[in-house]
Amino acid sequence: MFADQGLHAASMADVAAQAGVAVGTLYNHFSDRDALLGALLESRRRQVMARLDAALEAGREAPFDAQLGAVFRVLLSHLEEHRAFLRIALQGEHGGLKKPNATGQAIEARFAQLVRRGLEQGALAARSEALYVMVLMGIMRAMLMRVLHDGPGAVALPPVDDVVELFMSGARG
Prior knowledge:
Blueprint: H1 2-5, H2 12-19, H3 23-29, H4 33-58, H5 64-81, H6 83-94, H7 102-121, H8 129-149, H9 160-171
């Protein structure tokens, strides 16, 4: 309902009707619409973090660029799968949701882990780890902004191989 009607237009009554439950039942689980949205955001955060962790674990011994590609495939597929929901969630975030961006912080931690692997493999020039993480976060934020501003029928996000090649062309030693 949030994705279909917008963050502020969807009421708890609309959500309850869509879920096939009474409004009171919804209020038994969530104190208000913000609590419901927070629970949905947390669910999405856990989902993408589990997928990222699985990709990082599965690719632990792979070359850095393959690991980076796997991470971006997870992130980009998550954006595509949940484009409508993420658009309204990002609008809410910019509108002043009170909770810090736990998803962004968790993604940043995973990028830092990945960059350390790239440095250890010698796939990245010996520059600042923090700079590499900032660049990767910048790429990710740019994609998020595209999701925020694009509507239905939007242009697809860039292919993962293009994203990896762009990063690697500036990061190789």
